[in-house]
Amino acid sequence: MIWRPAGLFLFIFVSLAAAESEPVGVRWKQRRLDEALHDFGKTHNIQIEVDKKAGAERLTLALDGVASDDVIRCAAFRVGARAKKTKEGWRIAAPRPDAAWTKAQATKLDTKRFSGSALNMRSEEVFPYLANLADVNIVVDPGGAGFQKEHVKLEGTEQASVCSLVIRAARATGLTWDFRWGVVFLATPKRMGVLPRTSPASFVFGLGADPVVTPERIEKTEIQVDWRGLELLECLKRMTIRCGIPFEVAGELPATLQIEITARAKRITVEQALALLLVPMKLRYVVEADRVVVRAAS
Fold first, then answer.
1. CA distance to 45, 55, 72, 177, per residue, from 81 (Å)
2. What is the mean predicted confidence (pLDDT) over 224-249?
3. Among candidates 166, 162, 183, 165, which has minimal Cα distance to 98?
4. CA-CA distance, 186 to 205, in Å (whole number)?
5. Which of 58, 90, 125, 170 has its CA 20 to 30 A from that of 38?
6. Cβ partners under 8 Å of residue 265, min gap 6
7. Environment class of residue 173 by beta-carbon count within 10 Å: exposed (0-12), middle (13-18) or buried (19+)?
8. Which residues contact 219 (CB under 8 A, 6 or more apart)?
9. Helix, coil or strand: residue 161
């Protein structure tokens, strides 16, 4: 086991292979991130490279029955850091662009506890239930193929953190998770790997125009979305009612218009809502002076 300063990083080095076969758990209370991951990497034979700034952060984390990869990612998110898996292992660096929001969401997920001895419900119901329990936004990929299983049954859940249950339920239904677009986003590993983190946007303003729709309005206006089996046009209409911004769909998207979209989220910006709605559909938007036009991604 070698643990030494190297430039701006501390290297927690053990081997090239992570042990993912058995579920693991941690109970950390006000531990430095670098020390916690040092011990975790040594125990589970994982190489972890930690940025010094991130490593100095202290965290409290309680997880049960999850994969070692999930522990590392949760630890990074708990302090607002980025976690990236490489061929050699993991690299943790601070901060994420949305560090404050990520820390707040991770804290809610980790501190809220489930009181039952088992969680047993339909897949389509479990994530809205957990979202409500922890007061966070959890959204399943609107453009994905759905759940691999129709029912989720998790045992040994008494006093488990909501974070543990989200991770376990996601794996049980063939999904993985990430903090994106103002929500805990769930998708298949393949989809998660190819979906960009931001929705490509263009801003087009005429000379001398006094725009009604500005970048600041897109970035800062907060809304609530409640899409339950709605088509794209109806989602956009409801967003207009919420924020007052006119939306228009370009004529080349007939197939996309028929996809039914389900997503619920509170207190997200128009920018985040557009990313949540459009990125999974491989769409982009163009902001003009008086409207937002949705187009196919180029």
1. 22, 9, 11, 16
2. 93
3. 183
4. 35
5. 170
6. 137, 139, 182, 183, 224, 225, 272, 273, 276
7. buried
8. 269, 270, 271
9. strand
